Amino acid sequence: MDLDISDKSLPVFAALDSKVRVEIIQLLSKQKMNVSEIAQAIGLSSPITIMHLNKLRDANLIRTEKQGNQRISSLQVDKINITFPKQLYIPYENWQVELPIGQFTDFDVQPSCGLAGQTGFIGKVDNPSYFMDPERSEAGMLWFAKGFVEYKVPNYLASDQQLEMIELSAELSSEFPFSNNNWPSDISVSLDGHNIGVWTSPGDFSDVRGRYTPKWVYNDMNQYGMLKSFRISKHGSFIDGQYAAETQIADIDTTKASWTLRFEVKDSAKNVGGCTIFGNKFGNHDQGIKGTFYFSDTTLG
Predict the structure, then answer these.
(1) DSSP secondary structure letter of residue 270
(2) d(C-alpha 196, C-alpha 190), whole Å
(3) Which of 156, 204, 209, 162 lies closest to 183 in space, CA to CA?
(4) What is the pTM of this model?
(5) What structural domains and CATH numbers belong to the chain?
(6) DSSP-assigned beta bridge partners for residue 204
(7) What is the pLDDT of residues 3-57, one digit of tens each?
(8) Where does the record place the HTH arsR-type domain (predicted)?
(9) Which 8-state DSSP code applies to residue 50?
(10) Is 64 exposed, middle or buried (0-12, 13-18, 19+ CB in 10 A)?
């Protein structure tokens, strides 16, 4: 489950703000249980236990089902990721770009792979040839088991400006046929061949539906990813603020009209678990691949 600091996440925070409900989660992490079994284990009456279960269910932390006269509860989430708002205090000007995820310029992917838009799949699933479908620009989700996709990032830097830092962000997850919440994958990110870092995605998530994922997407398909931040600065490259690679901003050729951004799952990776990229109107973050480019004016020095 992917959360941020907003009103939408309050039901989950409220559900977890209880020693009793945390104890129930611990019990359900071991096995499914009915109301009587849970009530006996936590030492509360069945009506009070049901109240706590309803709170956890409404927060999408557990699921309940009827089996005869019994109400069976099971854990629905095995991981919660919380994204805090960030503010970079940088005294630089910047320009921003947002690339639709279907606007890739090169690829070499292997099944399972595919593209999806607002109304259905784009072309045939598990056929890399359809990654060249003219409608790929409408994709809000793409996935592949191994290989790469590349995007051209425009360079708007003027001759009297100096590039100081690059920040990129994308919503990513692993790729497993349909989904697998525990399916690690090493996703490499590079710019113009310069390594930014490798992020190990923990899984391909379908424990809850993505906030923006269209209704036509099956419940057991990829639902959302994790929003990852990639930064290139004069100190090196960072993923979510953690040092990830030696590439520095000085390594980027600022005389070029564009740079090549690559997302890749390599044959040599320890965890070859695929890659899913979520874009606008899919997943938990209504965005494509965002870039912010910070620069200074050399004429002011």
Answers:
(1) S
(2) 5
(3) 204
(4) 0.79
(5) 2-75 (1.10.10.10), 86-300 (2.60.120.260)
(6) 180
(7) 888 888 898 999 999 999 999 999 999 999 999 999 999 999 999 999 999 999 9
(8) 1-95
(9) H
(10) middle
